[in-house]
Specification:
The chain is an alpha/beta fold. It has 20 helices and 15 strands. It has an 8-stranded mixed sheet, with helices on both faces. The longest helix has 18 residues. The chain is elongated, with a radius of gyration of 26 Å.
């Protein structure tokens, strides 16, 4: 079945932010839309708000008034659900309550044509469960938009156990016709984005709880080194801790307490204190007008003369860092590797610099017989990253730390010293995101392509987690996860079987 034609009438139930946003998207695509809400006057108020938002774009020169008038003319408010009887597709966007949703869809099944497509915008409830009591559950699917729907590109097309391929494909093609980036997902807890994104928050919260660094510095590192648009703490403050914590609890409970999704006591305390983030005025950060903007903790300038940099082994993913060092005027000398795993080492005199591999610096220094070891973090783009995280072994002297600081500062990078923690910040976050994405692919939730696309279009990740792992090398990421698991002794860091298998067989996720 192709995408629904623009002559198809779209019904939307719920005139809140999500429902009104979805109605706007469909109307902008050329459909006649009936917006229903059971609160008298709510649908009309929702359409009035759409007009106000569009007219702001007119005032900025981004739209013309005629287009706004045409869009609004295609929107019809309805206080009674009976007005949706002739709709070709009805999208529900109401409260996240299973029984209420089931009642609504039972009404729709009795009211609408047998050919009407039914979809829920639920972000957390099972499509299979919502559709379970319908006579024709095969015509129902999830159509999960992201807030705000007119702006956010991603739509997850979620198939329940009974959903036919034809229905899912029609909804997928319709979402694309509406200008969205669509992905297929099966109805499992969190679908793609809300499941795969959990480690982004969880690893930041753990680093904070363990005293590895402060929230502002962790955020800065994920932005400036990892290339993420926002760090986990500022993002949780924006989302609202009540919402973010509830999603984590929902996924954790749905997976029978799997420790990969374990909620954080740090975030629970914020919720209990009513410190919900921006909407309450305080979360991890203070949003009062008089409050100072939180600043990351970076090292003071180190005025230390740098010796020649000796590179031992194949540079691999850090080759751009070495090119940057040369461009900054440093003398770089290459030598063959003596390491069995081929991992490169950088020498500044007696100081050894190495990319983190998931072990803490103390363990690695002991295992490899090193006196002065400093580990550095992963960067999305070593040529352009403006900050980096470092951690030193217990045997590294203050002079060695100063030398490491001076090296990265010489290339124009801010340096954040962490306590000696496994995987640092960016590496452990990326490894865990990829691990969760790999498990989603293994369990048939999505394809590798759709998993990556969802994380880029849905939460603005700089690169799809599985594509990132492919570029780093699966054996390296698998080894990092094994080291994290050994360090903590927790199932939370267990490597996905698919990631492990692909690492051993040297298969890319995107071949």
């Amino acid at each position: 079945m192709p995408a629904l034609p623009t002559s198809a009438v779209i019904g939307v139930i719920g005139a809140g932010a999500m429902g009104a946003g979805i109605a706007q998207v469909a109307a902008q695509a050329g459909h006649s839309v009936i917006l229903h809400d059971n609160q008298p006057g709510a649908a009309k108020a929702g359409i009035d708000n759409i007009r106000r938002q569009l007219e702001k774009r007119v005032a900025k020169g981004k739209m013309i008034q005629g287009d706004v008038d045409n869009i609004i003319a295609r929107l019809q408010p309805a206080d009674a659900i009976d007005a949706l009887a002739d709709s070709h597709l009805v999208i529900e966007a109401i409260v996240e309550n299973l029984e209420i949703k089931r009642q609504v869809f039972a009404q729709l099944e009795a009211l609408c044509s047998p050919d009407t497509l039914l979809a829920s915008n639920t972000s957390s409830l099972s499509i299979t469960s919502i559709a379970a009591n319908l006579e024709r559950p095969e015509r129902m699917a999830g159509l999960h938009f992201f807030n705000p729907a007119p702006i956010m590109k991603l739509v997850e097309v979620v198939s329940g156990l009974a959903t036919t391929t034809e229905i899912a494909d029609t909804l997928y093609d319709t979402a694309v016709a509406w200008g969205k980036v669509a992905v297929h997902a099966s109805s499992t807890p969190g679908f793609i984005v809300n499941r795969v994104a959990r480690p982004f928050y969880a690893e930041g919260l753990r680093l904070l709880q363990e005293g590895a660094s402060d929230a502002a510095t962790i955020d800065a590192l994920l932005r400036q080194a990892g290339g993420f648009r926002m760090g986990p703490f500022e993002l949780m403050d924006l989302i609202g801790h009540d919402v973010n914590y509830a999603v984590t609890r929902s996924v954790f409970d749905a997976y029978y307490g799997d420790t990969r999704f374990e909620p954080s006591l740090v975030q629970q305390a914020l919720v209990e204190a009513g410190r919900l983030g921006r909407k309450s005025g305080k979360g991890f950060f203070d949003y009062a007008e008089s409050a100072a903007k939180p600043q990351p903790t970076f090292a003071e300038p180190a005025n230390t003369e740098l010796p020649a940099l000796v590179v031992q082994g194949d540079p691999g993913v850090i080759a751009p860092l070495l090119e940057r060092a040369q461009e900054a005027g440093l003398d770089v000398v290459y030598r063959e590797s003596l390491q069995q795993d081929g991992s490169p080492r950088l020498y500044l005199g007696d100081l050894v610099l190495a990319l983190s591999d998931g072990r803490c610096a103390a363990e690695r220094a002991v295992n490899e017989g090193l006196d002065a070891l400093v580990l550095f973090d992963l960067c999305l783009d070593y040529r352009n990253a403006s900050a980096i995280a470092l951690a030193a072994s217990h045997t590294a002297s203050p002079e060695a730390r100063q030398l490491a600081t001076a090296f990265f500062q010489h290339m124009g990078m801010d340096v954040a010293w962490l306590t000696d923690t496994p995987g640092l910040v960016v590496l452990r976050t990326v490894a865990m995101l990829a691990n969760e994405a790999a498990d989603a692919v293994l369990q048939g939730v999505c394809s590798a392509k759709d998993g990556d696309l969802a994380m880029q279009a849905g939460v603005n990740y700089p690169r799809g987690p599985l594509a990132w792992v492919d570029s780093l090398g699966l054996p390296f990421v698998h080894r990092t996860l094994m080291h994290l698991q050994q360090s903590y002794g927790e199932e939370r860091y267990r490597s996905s079987f698919l990631l492990r298998r692909n690492a051993l067989s040297e298969e890319s996720f995107h071949e």
